Amino acid sequence: MKTLGRALKAGVKGFADAFAPARYQAGGVQIRCTHCKGEMFREHEALLNTTGATLVNLDWLNKSGTALLCENCGLIQWYAKKPDRK
Questions:
Q1: Is residue 11 part of a domain?
Q2: Is 55:37 a contact under the CB 8 Å cutoff?
Q3: Are 40 and 24 in contact (CB under 8 A)?
Q4: DSSP secondary structure string, 41-53?
Q5: Domain range holding 78?
Q6: DSSP 22
Q7: Domains in the chain, number
Q8: Cα 46–Cα 51–Cα 54 angle in degrees, nearest 5
Q9: What confidence tens digit (pLDDT) does each residue in 27-84 have?
């Protein structure tokens, strides 16, 4: 029973860590906020909608991108390729 409790705690911690603010790199360069120079971001995935796909109700066919939200000032930076979490 102790093993199950430890496993559950580790799983919850891993899940929480995945959504915690973190530092990121793109193209081997540390990402910094262009507004406040912050280095901590929260990551979100979002669809990159196109007019044509929306017109025929096929938004799900669009590609997705990664949005990094600055933890300090809230500025959103978009990336077509997913940045590396450091």
A1: no
A2: no
A3: no
A4: EEEEEEE---HHH
A5: 21-85
A6: B
A7: 1
A8: 70
A9: 999 999 999 999 999 999 886 666 665 666 665 666 788 999 999 999 999 998 999 9
